[in-house]
Design brief:
The complex is a heterotrimer of chains A (293), B (285) and C (368). Chain A is mainly alpha-helical and 293 residues long. Chain A has a single domain, classed as ABC transporter involved in vitamin B12 uptake, BtuC. In chain A, 72% of the residues lie in helices and 3% in strands. Chain B is of the alpha/beta class. Chain B has a six-stranded mixed β-sheet with strand order 6-7-8-3-9-10, with helices on both faces. A four-stranded antiparallel β-sheet of chain B has the order 2-1-4-5, covered by helices on one side. The N and C termini of chain B lie close together (8 Å). Chain C has one domain. Chain C has a three-stranded antiparallel β-sheet, covered by helices on one side. In chain C, strand 1 and strand 2 form a beta hairpin. In chain C, helix 5 runs antiparallel to helix 10. The chains are: A mainly alpha (293), B alpha/beta (285), C mainly alpha (368). Chains in contact: A-B, A-C, B-C.
């Protein structure tokens, strides 16, 4: 029964990673950049929801929507100001800029909300689910996280594969110049991708803080790195890959913590990543690229 | 005709028929037996047999997509063959990787030029001389006398090689900033610097005007004579191929459809068909 | 041709000259008491970060592979170096052999050996990490270096090392599990890191390490092996085609880079009384990467300048107090944008031209 309970919390944590990983993977797939500030957008989402519920006394659901709106706007502003001027720049320059944005967000949060951890109260209104005479307790947040993740993946898959903007996204990710020549607005597509990714980050931030209710300016950093790992794990650029990578990462982390070592759980996660990449160098669902000679 | 086809199928030996007479007494530098590769079911090259004489200039021609560059990639182990054997100077190369193949004696150029664009012309050629220079990392870091001696000798050699193509004045330029034709020549020089026994040239005349092609032709022959090496080249410019190649192999859909001297190839109906398509009512043979 | 060769040797002389002049000037300022206490505390870290940046530049700029785990090698060097220094000191205290006692009681010898051992350990780790990492390319390689950095940090946080009459004891469990005799010393205490370090590092030692690093890296770059490494960066297939083993030279650059980072780590650790594994995390790797990118890929002098300026900058920005890290972030973003965006460069140049026109100084023409 313990195992089942660990497994479920692993899937739940994995769902949150998957939602964050989607942001990384979509931006990477379309703009070919590692958006290191993504993790910090999560943190902003958490603070926004926190502010809305505690300071303004809003309904939790409303606070989530508020956080999503703010993060979407933030994502677009970051993209326009910091990344768009670097479209033609080498990828490392964009990476360093993203790191700069990450520092900026963290330190702005530090000024606004101080380094003291805020205790976040879960936005999920349901009680825990008790099964097998109370031997298995599943918290409301756990259920909601998994549920929300599944809905998001399905929606995104539909958007990418069935809609016009989805077709534009696929075209841009395949070949930016060719897409431009075919009349696809590359800049607009990239902006929309950032907007979607940032809105998802807000959702992930709220869920993360509901599950682990400590909110600090650095809250987003480690989950950000791990979600990025999850995206690579599943094959960066692939939406199902981000989902699979996120879930697996969550399960490995929780099981590793439970059965091997609490302190080494991160090391285990990264060791599994290394092994996967050595066996399959482009991730679980990543495409193999043949070099043309 | 029928008989000769069945003969090549039965005896999978590369035909020595087109090796020039002066090389006939010696073992061919390259012997390829039933070489083949498929990419996930798609057969790109199949049953490729050839022998190249020690000082032969040999042409590999065929329509686009016939598998010519793939054969170069197989010979240099950029791709791993799925079947067949490659003997270089009588030695089996099946366990060698690309770098070892080069050290064993095959150098090549690339269809889409692959230089070291951020480095100088001189350094590009010096990298070709890498295995000849041969001092250790520690010698380089500690700047021992052997370093200066080897570098001085390398520099002389670079200038000699560049001089073959009148490129000494470009030595300090960035390779990536050279005009197209000069980049092709530099790739040629770099390949030559590795001291090969067999040089593979992938479309050496691409993008060149007629007078440049003329110069290239005489350069290829000059280098063959001076270095006494075999040269195998892929080329679409028929004036070049017919002008300098002693033996020609024609490839279509991954298979050799004809082999012979330039004269034989020019009149071979299979070749004409591969290039121009079959005319209605035309009969083969 | 001679011009290019000369330009590169002039370039190297400039780099050495810059370092030496900077050292002499700082020495003079120190003697005159003109350097603030806070800045004095930054002198050794600056030298450490210079070595870190130059060594990372070998991987990122010269070899062309993005490494996000450079702090991991620094960590290995810091731990093995600090342990070495402490052990040597204990040995000098307890031994009856005169030459050992006299020899190891000399701080500079302990420091040199610590940096050497730190470098060797980090180099060995570099090789072990390199075997799997160098099978990958591009972003995948980057993420695996990040993963190794995190693993090293995690493992170092649960490492316990002690020393007593029976020798060295190691545990991954707890300090008690070391089962030390009475009078034994705990050298590494899990999450608390290496404790009880005798401070051995000095600005001069850092200066010497920088010189050694420069000799290794600059001479390497301008030699046969360095050319091969640059060839790998430009085109792997072409490199193989001229008979050079890509694996060998990628590994060489990676291991040398790790070794130098290890020596820098040892210097860093021996500048404090204790050092924790958390210090060498992803953020430190990124910090060093920022030095390399801002200084210019493959530009060694640029790395040195960027490491110095960006280490001193937060101190200078102390006037802004709580806004200093925010300012740092903004400066970083603006510098990246200006350096890489043609339109912004144009704007800046125009502003610059207007300013220089208004100034009565005539600029000399010349190559930029």
């Amino acid at each position: 029964m313990d195992f089942l309970s660990y497994l479920i919390s692993g899937i739940s944590l994995g769902s949150i990673y998957a939602i964050i990983a989607l942001g990384y993977t979509m931006v990477y797939g379309i703009a070919r950049m590692l958006n290191f500030a993504h993790g910090d957008v999560i943190m902003v989402g958490g603070y926004m929801s926190f502010m809305a519920t505690t300071r303004f006394g809003w309904h939790p659901l409303l606070s989530v929507i508020f956080a999503m709106i703010i993060c979407t706007v933030l994502g677009i502003v970051i993209e326009q100001l910091a990344y768009k001027p670097l479209r033609a720049a080498p990828s490392l320059a964009v990476l360093i800029t993203a790191i700069g944005v990450s520092y900026l967000l963290q330190n702005a949060a530090l000024l606004l909300w101080s380094a003291n951890p805020k205790s976040f109260s879960s936005v999920v209104p349901f009680d825990s689910l008790r099964l097998f005479n109370g031997k298995l307790i599943i918290s409301g947040t756990t259920i909601v996280s998994i549920f929300v993740c599944v809905i998001i993946i399905m929606t995104l898959n539909t958007i990418v594969n069935k809609t016009k903007i989805g077709k534009a996204m696929r075209a841009v990710s395949e070949d930016k110049d060719a897409a431009q020549l075919m009349g696809v607005s590359v800049n607009r597509t990239i902006s929309i991708t950032f907007a979607i990714g940032s809105a998802l980050a807000a959702v992930a931030g709220v869920l993360l803080c509901s599950a682990y209710p400590i909110l600090m300016p650095t809250t987003g950093a480690m989950p950000g790195i791990k979600a990025f790992t999850a995206a690579v794990f599943g094959g960066i650029g692939s939406i199902p890959g981000a989902f699979l990578g996120g879930i697996l990462l969550g399960i490995i982390e929780i099981l590793g913590k439970a059965y091997i070592s609490t302190q080494l759980s991160d090391a285990i996660v990264f060791a599994v990543l290394i092994i996967i990449l050595i066996v399959k160098p482009t991730g679980l669902l990543g495409k193999k690229v043949l070099v043309k000679v | 005709m029928n008989e000769s086809i069945s003969k090549t199928k039965m005896v999978p030996l590369p035909s020595h028929a087109i090796i020039p007479e002066r090389d006939a007494s010696q073992r061919p530098i390259l012997e390829v037996y039933r070489l083949g590769i498929n990419f996930g079911g798609l057969v790109a090259v199949e049953d490729f047999n050839i022998a190249v004489g020690r000082t032969e200039i040999c042409g590999l021609i065929g329509p686009n997509g016939a598998g010519k560059t793939t054969i170069f990639n197989l010979l240099t182990k950029v791709y791993q063959p799925t079947s067949g054997a490659i003997l270089l100077d009588g030695k089996d190369t099946s366990n060698m990787n690309t770098a070892q193949i080069n050290r064993a004696g095959i150098a090549r150029t690339f269809q889409n030029i692959r230089l070291f664009p951020s480095l100088s012309v001189e350094d590009n050629v010096k990298i070709g001389l890498h295995n000849e220079i041969g001092y250790s990392m520690a010698t380089g870091i500690l700047r021992l006398p052997a370093f200066y001696k080897a570098e001085r000798r390398a520099k002389e050699r670079v200038m000699e090689l560049l001089d073959l193509f009148d490129m000494t004045h470009l030595a300090s330029h960035r390779a990536g900033s050279l005009p197209y034709g000069a980049q092709r020549r530099l790739e040629f020089v770099r390949a030559l610097a590795t001291n090969p026994k067999l040089l593979l040239l992938d479309e050496p005349a691409a993008g060149m005007n007629p007078s440049e092609t003329e110069e290239l032709m005489s350069n290829i022959e000059k280098i063959r004579d001076q270095f006494q090496i075999a040269i195998m080249l892929i080329e679409h410019d028929m004036r070049l191929v017919m002008g300098i190649c002693e033996g020609i192999a024609v490839l279509n859909y991954g298979q050799i459809i004809a082999k012979g001297t330039p004269k034989e190839i020019q009149t071979n109906p299979l070749v004409i068909e591969a290039y121009l398509g079959k005319k209605k009512g035309d009969q083969v043979c | 041709m001679r011009r290019l060769r000369m330009r590169s040797s002039i370039d190297n002389c400039l780099t050495y000259g810059l370092v030496i002049v900077a050292y002499v000037v700082i020495r003079l300022l120190l003697a005159g008491g003109n350097i603030s206490y806070a800045l004095q505390g930054q002198l050794v870290p600056i030298t450490v970060y210079i070595v870190m940046a130059v060594s990372l530049n070998l991987t990122v700029g010269v070899l062309g592979e993005l490494s996000l785990g450079h702090a991991g090698f620094m960590s290995i060097g810091a731990f093995s170096g600090a342990i070495t220094a402490t052990l040597l000191e204990l040995l000098a205290d307890t031994t009856s052999t005169t030459w050992i006692r006299l020899g190891f009681s000399m701080p500079w010898l302990r420091l040199s050996l610590a940096m050497l051992i730190g470098g060797i350990f980090a180099g060995i780790f570099g090789f072990l990490v390199g075997v799997p990492v160098l099978r990958l390319h591009g972003d995948y390689l980057a993420i695996v270096t990040l993963a190794f950095g995190e693993i090293i940090k995690n493992v170092m946080s649960i490492l316990y090392v002690g020393y007593d009459a029976n020798g060295i004891r190691v545990s991954m469990d707890s300090a008690n599990a070391l089962k030390l005799d009475e009078g034994g010393t705990i050298i590494v205490n899990g999450p608390m890191g290496v404790i009880g370090i005798t401070k051995l590092s000095s600005f001069t030692a850092g200066f010497i390490l920088i010189l050694i690093t420069l000799i290794i890296v600059l001479n390497l770059i301008n030699s046969r092996a360095g050319r091969a490494i640059k060839a790998v960066r430009d085109d792997k297939i072409a490199t193989e085609s001229v008979g050079i083993s890509v694996w060998r030279y990628r590994m060489m650059a990676f291991v040398i880079s790790a070794t130098l980072a290890g020596a820098a780590g040892a210097l860093y650790a021996l500048n404090y009384s204790s050092v924790v594994a958390r210090k060498f995390d992803f953020n430190t790797s990124i910090l060093v990467l920022v030095f390399v990118v801002l200084g210019g890929m493959g530009n060694i002098r640029g790395s040195i300048i960027a490491a110095t300026v960006l280490t001193v900058l937060p101190e200078v920005l102390r006037a802004f107090n709580e806004y200093r890290m925010l300012t740092y972030a903004v400066i970083l973003i603006v510098v990246m944008l200006v350096r890489n965006n043609a339109t912004l460069q144009h704007v800046f140049r125009q502003v610059g031209a207007r300013l220089s026109k208004s100034l009565p100084i005539r600029r000399k023409g010349g190559e930029v």
